[in-house]
Amino acid sequence: MANDILVSVGKMSAGIASAIIILRIMNLKSWRYFQEYNRLQGKTFVITGANCGIGKELTRQIVTSGGNVVMLCRDTQKGKIAMKEILQKPTPTMGTVTLRRMDLNSFASVENSAKEIIESVPRIDCLINNAGVMMAPFSMTEDGFESHMQSNHLGHALLTHLLLPKIASFGSPQNPTRVVFVSSTLYKRGNIIEDHFKSGAVTPENFDQKFAYSNSKLASLLFARELSNEVKRRGLPVIINSASPGMVYTNLGRHFNMSWYQKLFLLPFFAVFVRAPVEGARIILYAAASEKSLHSNGAFIQSYEEKPIEPKFDSEMCKKVYQLTMDAINKSHS
């Protein structure tokens, strides 16, 4: 009897495993890939959060394809380890990689890093605002903002604002330079709350851990859309887009607390649908360098396609978020 049960369980487990493998292969075939690696050669990319996850994989793919990367990392020790791992596998077209410390949760750190980059980096072809935090417990930055909002949005907005003149100076109408905000479809769960853009307004009592990530990603997406309009009005040869890499297995989810049985229940789903960093990075590279995305501006790119955003997040809301953001970063670093 016991042996029969074990045999049945073994057959069922083998069947489930086979089904997962088949679905995974089918899913991989349906995912298109970025293949224009020749367009990375000789170009310089500035990447935040470049020491792990998608940021590290972006750095690896760009550098091994002949591009140059400036890694911006809060933890320089982890950055050095990542850089060493990337450089241990050289290619004939190897580009260069440099490391600089920058903490998005400090506007002073962002300003110092931007100043160093402007003075020492010969050119910038693309800024990739990649770093982020998700489901972290409440934390207030030295500038008085909740950490999700500053790390995921306000810090990147300030960095983009400071580097934009240099980025624009190397673009042309035929070959514009680019800024990519790494986004998420979870923006759909977000809300724009004006107090989140005010220093000291978010407290442990009114902080909502479940929606902090979505709120910050919505703010980033709407800011990017209006920034693209501002760039057009000023006649700058820069493309501004947001791109979602999809569900990617990285340490972004390190703050999730799941029981063993929840993890076991979700394992088949993760095995089929969650991308590896190498796959997620390719979608970001599509927004950052592909000829096919040259005509996208202010777009939300998901799975290599430009997708419409929720209708409720209209142009007026984009303008509102842009102004709230500029007021926040201007007051804090003026």
UniProtKB/TrEMBL annotation:
Keywords: Membrane, Oxidoreductase, Transmembrane, Transmembrane helix. The keyword Lipid metabolism does not apply. InterPro entries: NAD(P)-bd_dom_sf, SDR_fam. SUPFAM superfamilies: NAD(P)-binding Rossmann-fold domains. GO terms for molecular function: oxidoreductase activity. It comes from the Eukaryota. The chain crosses the membrane at residues 6-26. This is Uncharacterized protein. It comes from Tetranychus urticae (Two-spotted spider mite). The lineage of its organism: Eukaryota, Metazoa, Ecdysozoa, Arthropoda, Chelicerata.
